[in-house]
Design a protein that fits this description.
- The complex is a heterodimer of chains A (289) and B (254).
- Chain A is mainly alpha-helical and 289 residues long.
- Chain A has 11 helices and 2 strands.
- Chain A has a single domain, classed as Orthogonal Bundle (MetI-like fold).
- Helix content of chain A is 72%, strand content 1%.
- The radius of gyration of chain A is 24 Å and the shape is globular.
- Chain A starts with 8 loop residues before the first helix and ends in a 5-residue tail after the last helix.
- Chain B has a domain of 141 residues: P-loop containing nucleotide triphosphate hydrolases (Rossmann fold, 3-Layer(aba) Sandwich).
- Chain B has a 6-stranded mixed sheet, sandwiched between helices. Chain B has a 4-stranded antiparallel sheet with strand order 2-1-4-5, with helices on one face.
- In chain B, a hairpin with a 2-residue loop joins β9 and β10.
- Chain B is globular.
- The relative contact order of chain B is 0.18.
- Classes of the chains: A mainly alpha (289), B alpha/beta (254).
Chain lengths: 289, 254
């Protein structure tokens, strides 16, 4: 009854060829990452020390540490998150759970996705016009953070929306049938299950906000400040801009300094991504359906 | 006029957009009976249940015309639709074990409704609901494990316990036995027979024999029409008026 099917050698050959092709592509994908990290480590590591991280720049930024820039980046990221996360998650909840499926909603979705593709320098100009001039925040942490928030907002919305949509509709139905209101359903059942996804999206945006230079250059980041910011209305230094400055604008900088700055910046980004992955794995263990 | 009708449905028509899924259904469900609804897929059985607890509000293009009254009050005039839904427990074809613990699954509805009371009260309520759903003995040692990790049959009994948690006056079951093994099905059927004294049960099933075993009266839905309503015993003893009912019950189609 069961005759051995003839092995189709041609198919097998094609399969092997594609396997090989994809393997090679994977290697090409990994090479840049490894090279960049390796270069940063080799060239930047000599600059690493506690004083590099916790001291002020000295001698016209050719020596000393990067603390004001690191401090400023943390400020910028936190303030921008405070603006973009509540707004973005709220918008995503509205779009996913409340909005009727009509032209307006589709238009909003389209606008959100397109906004995510706007170059960051355009966001910077918007920030100058809106926050620095119109709202009169001046060049300040607040203006720069809000510009970063505008930049990250679309992606926060889209990733939160996707996490909300990934919660099975049957959960909502079950909850509604119990007599729960829409909001009770969202708060008790939808959000807890979408939480990891939303968090991952947010953390990925942290790394993006920490690394962007253009949006903060005209809105609140200074090349060099002799003091730390006291409030959100002060200007601040920031890692990304500091890297740009020491790499291109200041003469006689020892080679290890810009690489050291870059290493710290990439370190922060990788750390945040690792945290995102860790949280994801940790929480997914508890989530099964 | 005094009737013992729990639910009165008059000229109910349900459409999704322009596509009518249920046409001009008029029927009533008596208090404390098990009212069976049989019929093949796409007969409008599930939509009928959705119309009763006003889930059409949550669906964009579901249009319901006609009147449904519960205890003589039009469901459309019910000011607090959430209170209406709390009076009606629903069990779905596939068990929806919310990713909460067994305990929280059952306690969710009272907590949301604000009727949970003290922890001790809630403990008693959860135990009572689980016992009535014939699940207590199997889960009493793992109340704080995830409900969605239980087996399919256990999860379905968990959803029944959840549906009972607000002491509903009406229990609607939508093909509850699809994902449940025969032994568990029989256990749940026994549970339903006991619950009948306390509540009105609407049992949608595509197992004709299940309707025969449980239902006091049975309606036969076919392609959006309510072909026949009658005492279950009559229908299954060949007293159906409509040939299609006899054919369906006799297993000639469907």
């Amino acid at each position: 009854m069961f005759a051995a099917a003839p092995i189709n050698l041609k198919n097998r050959e094609i399969q092997q060829r594609f396997q090989w092709l994809f393997g090679v592509m994977l290697i090409f994908l990994i090479i840049p990452v490894v090279v960049i990290l390796g270069m940063l480590l080799i060239k930047g590591w000599p600059a690493m020390s506690w004083s590099f991280i916790f001291d002020d720049p000295k001698n016209g930024m050719t020596a000393g540490g990067i603390f004001p820039a690191l401090f400023g980046t943390i400020w910028l990221v936190i303030v921008s998150l405070l603006a973009s996360v509540p707004l973005g998650v709220a918008a995503a909840i509205y779009l996913s759970e409340y909005a009727p499926d009509n032209m307006l909603t589709r238009l909003i979705n389209l606008a959100t996705i397109n906004l995510a593709g706007v170059p960051s320098i355009v966001h910077a100009l918007f920030g100058v016009g809106a926050f620095v001039s119109f709202f009169k925040f001046g060049t300040s942490i607040l203006a720069a953070s809000l510009t970063l928030a505008i930049m990250t907002l679309p992606v926060v919305i889209v990733s939160s929306w996707e996490s909300l949509q990934s919660v099975p509709r049957s959960f909502r139905e079950a909850c509604w049938n119990m007599g729960a209101t829409r909001w009770q359903t969202i708060w008790n059942v939808v959000l807890p299950n979408a939480f990891t996804g939303i968090l991952t999206g947010v953390i990925l945006q942290v790394s993006r906000a920490a690394g962007e230079t253009a949006p903060i250059m005209f809105t609140g980041a200074a090349m060099f400040l002799p003091f730390l910011p006291n409030s959100v209305f002060d200007q601040t230094m920031a890692l990304a801009l500091h890297l740009f400055v020491v790499a291109t604008q200041v003469p006689d900088v020892p080679e290890s300094l810009p690489f050291g700055v870059a290493l710290v910046l990439v370190g922060i980004v990788l750390l945040m991504n690792t945290v995102a992955i860790w949280i994801r794995m940790h929480l997914r263990g508890k989530k099964k359906w | 006029m005094v009737t013992n009708h729990k639910i009165d449905v008059q000229d109910l028509t349900i459409a999704y957009g322009t596509h009518r899924i249920l046409r001009h259904v008029t029927l009533n469900v008596r208090a404390n009976e098990i009212f069976g609804i049989i019929g093949p897929a796409n007969s409008g059985k599930t939509s009928f249940l959705n119309a009763i607890n006003r889930m059409d509000m949550m669906r964009v293009n579901m249009n319901v015309t006609g009147t449904i009254t519960i205890d003589g009050i039009d469901t459309r005039n019910w000011r607090n639709v959430y209170a209406l839904r709390r009076k009606i427990g629903v069990v779905f074809p596939l068990p929806v074990g919310l990713p909460l613990t067994v305990y929280d699954n059952v306690a969710l509805a009272p907590r949301l409704a604000g009727t949970a009371g003290s922890q001790a009260d809630l403990d008693i309520l959860v135990e009572r609901c689980l016992r009535r759903a014939a699940l207590w003995d199997e889960v009493k040692d793992r109340l704080h494990h995830l409900g969605s990790l239980l087996s399919g049959g256990q999860q379905q009994r968990l959803t029944i316990a959840r549906a009972l948690s607000q002491s509903p006056e009406i229990l609607m079951l939508d093909e509850f036995s699809i994902a449940v093994d025969p032994v568990t099905t029989m256990r749940i059927e026994d549970v339903l027979k006991e619950l009948k004294s306390e509540m009105t049960i609407i049992l949608v099933t595509n197992l004709v024999q299940q309707a025969n075993r449980l239902a006091d009266r049975t309606a036969f839905f076919l392609n959006g029409d309510c072909v026949e309503i009658g005492e279950t015993a009559d229908l299954f003893n060949g007293v159906a008026r409509d040939q299609r009912t006899l054919d369906y019950i006799g297993g000639k189609f469907g």
